[in-house]
Amino acid sequence: MDLNKVIRLLANFSIIGGFFRALMCPLALVWGMNSPQELTAGVLGTLFMGLGIFGLYFSAQKEFGKLGFTAFILYAFGSFILMGMVFATLVFAVYDPKVLQMDMPPLPILIASPLMMLSVMLSMILLGIAVLRTKVFSKVPAILIIIAPILNFIPVVGGFSVLAWGIPFMWFGVEVLKKSRENALVENITVEKTVL
Predict the structure, then answer these.
(1) Which of 33, 31, 12 is nearest to 172 (CA)?
(2) Closest to 187 in 3D by CA, of 1, 4, 6
(3) d(Cα 10, Cα 173) in Å, to the nearest integer?
């Protein structure tokens, strides 16, 4: 499998992950925050977005430079911590909901939470800035991904931040798919000309 096909696969993961991340919002509105339905979407969204970020980065790694690389590494690191935390919360919600109502969370979550929050939120802001600087993707999803972490701290709209997080990953994934298809066409034309 060549790099272009791998990037396409990872771009699909980005779209799937963004969909599940955005789906958390309506699921939370219907079944409530930390419901098994919302947390399942959160686990799937985090997993696929964590894989999808590799496709987004590799599709434009030359243009992204150091800032994009920093955002990519921070996001990959933070998203897998987040996935573990969301999965642990899902397990507690299903098997021992009392743990989620405790004043003091379990020690691993207490330690991992600030580390995950810092890395994921910083990576989202840096990724958005890198996209705006390099213009490798559209401006609208870049702006959305920058404001997504900020929305978490605004009480009225905090629950909608997952939309501003999921939509850009879907949008970027679609753009990477288009770009990789164009690259494949150029490669095919080049091979045909070489053969002739």
Answers:
(1) 12
(2) 4
(3) 8
Closest Cα to residue 27, out of 44, 10, 48?
Answer: 44
**For the segment 70-129, what is each residue's pLDDT rounded down to a tens digit?**
999 999 999 888 888 888 888 878 887 777 777 777 777 778 888 888 999 999 999 999
The residue written with tokens 């996209």 in the block is 131
pLDDT surpasses 70 at 196:
no
21-29 LR contacts (CB < 8 Å, sep 24+)? 21/45, 21/46, 21/49, 21/162, 21/165, 21/166, 21/169, 22/162, 22/163, 22/165, 22/166, 22/167, 22/170, 23/166, 24/162, 24/166, 25/159, 25/160, 25/162, 25/163, 28/159, 29/159
d(CA 77, CA 53): 11
Buried b vs exposed e over 28-47: b needs ≥16 C-beta within 10 Å?
Answer: beeeeebbebbbbbbbbbbb
With the C-alpha atoms ordered 116, 122, 123, 124, is the resulting torsion angle positive or negative?
A: positive
What whole-number distance in Å separates Cα of residue 53 and Cα of residue 11?
8
Q: Where are the domains of the chain?
A: 3-195
State whether the Cα torsion 66-58-82-125 is positive or negative: positive
Report how far residue 25's alpha carbon sits from residue 21's, in angstroms, rounded to the nearest whole number: 8
The whole-chain average pLDDT of the chain stands at 88
